[in-house]
Amino acid sequence: MTTYLDFEKPIAELESKIAxxxxxxxxxxxxxxxxxxRLQDKVQKQIRATYAKLTPWQRVQVARHAERPHAQGYIDRxxxxxxxxxGDRAFAEDAAIVGGLGRLQGRSIVVLGQEKxxxxxxxxxxxxxxxxxxxxxxxxxxxKLADRFKLPVVTFVDTPGAYxxxxxxARGQAEAVASSxxxxxxxxxxxxxxxxxxxxxGGALAIASADKVYMLENSVYSVITPEGCxxxxxxxxxxxxxxxxxxxxxxxDLKKLEIIDDVIPEPMGGAHRAPDEAIDLxxxxxxxxxxxxxxxxxxxxxxxxxxKFLAMGKKGL
Length: 317
Known about the structure:
- There is one protein chain.
- It contains 14 helices and eight strands.
- The chain is of the alpha/beta class.
- The protein folds into two domains: 13-53; 60-314, 2-enoyl-CoA Hydratase, Chain A, domain 1 (Alpha-Beta Complex).
- Strands 1, 2, 3, 4, 5, 6, 7 and 8 form an eight-stranded mixed β-sheet that branches.
- Helix 1 (9-22) packs antiparallel against helix 2 (32-51) and helix 3 packs across helix 11 (240-247).
- The longest helix is centred in the N-terminal third of the chain and has 20 residues, at 32-51.
- It is globular, with a radius of gyration of 21 Å.
- The termini are far apart.
């Protein structure tokens, strides 16, 4: 059953009518098939019109859509000969991040992705994609493994942010995030990152300080959630929509600000309406980026990557 967002109400009503018609018995008075086709055409036009003018807050809602493909879905479809790797070799396994060895279009890689889960049970298991320190140390371990064996790294970003719990803070959350960013900037192999849903704060940056950073068209990337920003500035998350507008969280905004390298278009109506098509397009873009980056030597990769992120900080000075 499709989950509709608030602004998709006209689409929901049309698709509900189509479902009702399909359950009606054939009648000589009405050509049901013809009416269904007419309504389907109307649905496509409504989807196109709705998604052509999404506000930043509406894109936040799409980025969080429950049926949007998550990291494990990308790995399952794109990565062959996949061998998952677990644990940080220091404390525990963190299910908020999945990763391992595999092949993308025949190229051996290390892949990492923040996994939110698809239902209540799996969301609790994966902690809604919010990593603890052991998750970031696991990411560092896998990136260093890739560096040792000269394998490119691909990361899929989808998190509201690093887990803010007391237990995470007690185990050194800030240090783990900072060390993970440092590892991203230090490895001498190609690193490509794609924001597939939410790119939340240092929790995202920790695995997205990459040679190439892409965002799906309806994903978002920000230093804090709009609700968190609103609660600080207006003392109420009721101003989240206003915060989303001011924060420039959308892929289009971040491309203009040169924070990301490019925007990957989504199927009409969002990745949740055609997940396989969206995943395949991401795979194509990532494979092309890896092919270009593989021509560069380790020292050049490190220098260019570090200069890229230092330049972002200098723009505000």
